[in-house]
Amino acid sequence: MAIDAAASGGAGSSRRSESPPPAALSGYLAALGPLRDLVEDDSLTEIMVVGPDRVYVEREGRVHLTDVRFDNEAHLVGVIDLIVTAVGRELNRRHPICEARLLDGSRVAASIPPVALNGPLLTIRKFSRRRYDVGDLVAFGSITEEAAAYLQVAVLARANLIISGGAGSGKTTLLNALSRFIAEEERVVTIEDAAELKLHQEHVCSLESRSGDDDGTGRISIRDLVVHSLRMRPDRIIVGECRAGEALDMLQAMNTGHDGSLTTIHANSPRDCLARLETMVLMAGLDLPVRAIRQHIASAIDVLVHLSRLKDGPRRVVSVSEIVGMEGDIITMQDIFSMGRGTESAKQAAVTRLRPTGVRPQTLRRLEERGIPAPDALRRLFPVPRVVA
After folding, report:
1. Of 159, 195, 188, 142, the residue nearest 318 (C-alpha)
2. Angle of helix 246-255 relative to helix 270-282, nearest 10 degrees?
3. Residue 326's pLDDT is what?
4. Distance (Å, rounded) from C-alpha 348 to C-alpha 271?
5. Pick from 154, 368, 347, 350: which is nearest to 260 by CA?
6. CA distance 132 to 127
């Protein structure tokens, strides 16, 4: 069954200019000094600098120490300063930690003494120059074709969707891929700490949080931006990652007409994701009963996708679930796809596979209500139950 991005109106390459002019980028890369070759190496997924003498990289899920070195600590600090100031951030003894991005979109976390005891620390999560779509993720084995088709349906049906998983599990990559199914005519507002989402649509409004000045003034949080986005007439809101009180505002937006919103959350399991959502809502500072929070979550979230990074390095979607409501004080979920063990051969006995559970998704009914036919493969996989007279 083909994964047809064109059906959603969101296919094709973006027409927006998202990168600096080539000459400016070339000068910027040259100023990165010993990091330039690593930044330009597409086989790397992470660059980890621990002081001027130790630079590690991750390739195919494994970490290696390189022979890259900085001249001294001042040289490393200078490169870090270039990176953070280029995107309007600040790193000094008063503000010794910073989250930023490279001009190519790669995510950056930097810290210096006194909080960094091993000398200046710099971690770069590489941004792929290639925009992966869901078909690519199927080819990589990150998700099955059937589960990918279901998620396409969920986006088309304007289901509110949360992608959860641990660090480096591929949450942002999946979010970018799923955004391809958003119709071109929709107005999308993205909200991030450091802008790294690269959507395919033309009408995208990208918002980025801002750290405060030394006296704390001028700070603009993710929560501020979520509230602000509601006044921007969005068709969909995409929050790169929910971490704190903004979860409450995101849930309220999902419950008040902004269907089809998406976000990611760090969590170890789908159930842990829901528990983290509760905690983040409480961080908004409102004294809400736990049952009320859970009812809010159950009515706002439609689909929860969980990813995991397996022991040998691959990143996989390990479950796709729907939130179906409340049973007493507990949020109830039903798995649509879950991980099982492959049994094709002894050699592949340990291979994990995402398999349909046989439960017919509620999302298909939402799609039918919008007059959009479900893909044939999904209709075969989840046939309409026969009504016995």
Report:
1. 142
2. 110
3. 94
4. 29
5. 154
6. 11
Which stretches does DSSP call E strand in the chain? 44-50, 54-59, 62-65, 97-101, 107-111, 121-125, 161-165, 188-192, 204-208, 236-239, 262-266, 303-309, 315-327, 330-341, 352-356
Sequence-ordered list of residues with C-beta below 8 angstroms from that of 236, at least 6 positions apart, any chain: 158, 182, 186, 187, 188, 189, 258, 259, 260, 261, 262
Cα 40 to Cα 27: distance, rounded to the nearest angstrom:
13
Tokens encoding 204: 């995208």
Question: Who wins on pLDDT, 226 or 194?
Answer: 226
Q: How confident is the model at residue 89 (pLDDT cuts 50, 70, 90)?
A: confident
Reported as a single tens digit per residue, the pLDDT across 252-268 is: 889 888 899 999 999 99
Give the whole-angstrom CA distance, residue 38 versus residue 32: 10
Tokens coding 192: 């991030």
Q: Which domains does the chain have, with CATH numbers?
A: 24-125 (3.30.450.90), 131-381 (3.40.50.300)
Its pTM stands at 0.79
CA pair distance 105, 18, nearest whole angstrom: 9
Q: How far apart are CA 365 and CA 355, in angstroms?
A: 21
What is the DSSP secondary structure assignment for residue 210, as one 8-state letter?
A: B
Place of tokens 């000045």: 213
Rounded CA separation 84/322 (Å): 40
Q: For 350-369, what is the HEC assignment?
A: CCEEEEECCCCCHHHHHHHH
Of 142, 162, 178, 152, give the one whose Cα is nearest residue 354. Answer: 142
Find the mean pLDDT for residues 280-309. Answer: 93
The amino acid present at 380, given as its one-letter code, is: R
Would you place residue 388 in the very low, low, confident or very high pLDDT band (cuts 50, 70, 90)?
low
pLDDT of residue 214: 63
Distances in whole angstroms, Cα of residue 185 to Cα of each of 148, 207, 234: 23, 19, 11
Q: What is the pLDDT of residues 260-291, one digit of tens each?
A: 999 999 999 999 999 999 999 999 988 889 99
Cα(239)–Cα(198) distance, rounded to whole angstroms?
Answer: 13
Q: What percent of the chain has a predicted confidence (pLDDT) above 70? A: 87
**What would the mean pLDDT of 367-374 be, rounded to a whole number?**
82
Q: Is the pLDDT of residue 301 over 50?
A: yes
